[in-house]
Fold:
Amino acid sequence: MTNKCVSEWIKEMASLCQPDSIYWCDGSIEEKERLQQEAINKGELIELNQAKLPGCFYHRTALNDVARTEQLTFICTPDKEDAGPTNNWMSPDEGYRRAGAIFSGSMKGRTMYVIPFSMGPVGSPFSKIGIQLTDSIYVVLNMRIVTRMGKVVTAELDKRSRLLPKRSRLLPKRSRLLPKGVDFTRCLHSIADLDVNRRLILHFPQDNTIWSVGSGYGGNALLGKKCLSLRIASYIAQKEGWLAEHMLIMGIEGPNGNVDYIAAAFPSACGKTNLAMLIPPMGLKHKGYRIWTVGDDIAWMRIGSDGALWAVNPEFGIFGVAPGTNSKTNPTAMATIQSDTIYTNVVLKPDKTVWWEGGDGPIPDNGLDWQGRQWKPGMTDATGTHIKGAHPNSRFTAPITNCPSVSHCIEQHQGVPISAIIFGGRRARLAPLVYESFNWQHGVFVGATMASERTAAQYGALGEVRRDPMAMLPFCGYNMADYFGHWLKMGNLITKPPLIFNVNWFRTDENNNFLWPGYGENLRVLEWIINRCNGKVESIETPIGYVPDIKDMDMTGLDIDTKDMERLLEINPNDWLGELKSIRDFFAQFGDRLPSEIWDEYKALEKRLQRR
Ligand code: GTP
Ligand code: SPV
Ligand code: MN
Structure:
């Protein structure tokens, strides 16, 4: 049925992996139900209480397969310099050889599922098509939620190949491995034996190819997500003149009924899903604010014919962090995950419902933990450490259309116009609640100098700062110095650029308590940001950028000390001069490849700080 280059590629991959059978996914409800049943029979899925959680299922990953494995993730380019100092690198030859040895015969006794999927609305000229081959039903069912997939995408692929000129000179030169023809991302995935020593997540940007083997976890295995929509897409975006970013997209409907859209980049587990689904706080209710969720993790942004930046969420579902999600912190997410949701690595209660640390309701008396062991609250291990029921990175996968605040614009081919770009991270000290960059170039510097603290619970040494430019450190598919250069170049092309801000919800006092209440209250900061975009409020100039005058922030109904507010907005020049050292070390690794504008901004900031 489909294009010859597609069927030839599938044939070649099948002869490598040797599945017993090959099955093309059509995306129908019947197919979904059949696969669910098969996964239940095999023990890959557990059916949850259908009266309480209709259409919901439960999955446990292997014990060693609970998060993305950045150390096993590689960018495979002929020249190591093209991957840059912040990526793991392997030559394409070595990549195909090493992963090929693991893929070899890895699907014996299994079915190879063929998933045609579209990142972005089906039929949009901006959307990218991928085909994922996988031997995991869990992956098929998740891809069904987080992407648009099946028959409609196969038809779109056929349409695109019919439109192809007979002998296209427009197509990029391909490696000898790839036949010429319609463009799609070739995504090969096998869980193989789930052995970490035989796990590789490889990206071949020049070949538009992803090979992932040995993991069944989210970002490692749902290849449309981080692998295609960020690593491969960022590479394509640089060539085609757009941006692929680790950003949420949300609309803020204001008192006058206007909707302003913003995009925000925070590192993993730093609050994108929460912000994208924000519920306005009581104190601002009278103003009639409404939030519209466009996306919670990835944004593809292009320059529109009006010269503004327009953003599309390439995904169709939410793969969100479960712990900490409850009806107080994120009621919208809780409403989203009551049906048609796959829960991974949370606590399974005796009544076949689910729970996690920081979740709703009373802590269950007992249940099965994420490892499938009997679990009771208060249990400790041999070292006396409290045993968590849910894995800290346990997740839910739900269709974005379940979200009560979903924007009606998610299918718009051109996306939504972005008024503000917001960067942010977890900083116990240093970074103020919010500041605005002086201009685009300075804004790029602000994004490039982003950093986030690792929390004791999740990542190791408390307070340890990891530099994570634009929240893209693990996701940039090419040399990050070139990536900064691309951002700078985009600034010259956008005639109506969004303003660029930085936020920090995580500043703490000397007792390590958050100074800012966060969550819904973050709307107060967004309101100031929108007012800045619309020229409605003044600001105060500091060495690092513009900060709000406290009187310009609506604090109605929020009981927060003026002292604390001052501390939240405080900028300590000495601390910032200290930070410059870490920034300099980070930038130094890029050598001459780092754009001179970035060093110009660095020196200008140093000067402004020393003047104080
Ligand atoms: P990924 O899916 O990994 O990309 O994460 P994310 O950026 O979408 O993070 P998410 O919204 O899931 O939040 C991660 C954690 O941060 C959760 O435990 C939240 O409860 C917490 N969090 C989110 N927003 C805030 C906030 O405004 N203040 C505080 N103190 N915590 C927050
Ligand atoms: C992240 O880690 O930023 C995620 C989860 O959004 S994953 O899809 O696994 O990358
Ligand atoms: Mn993410």
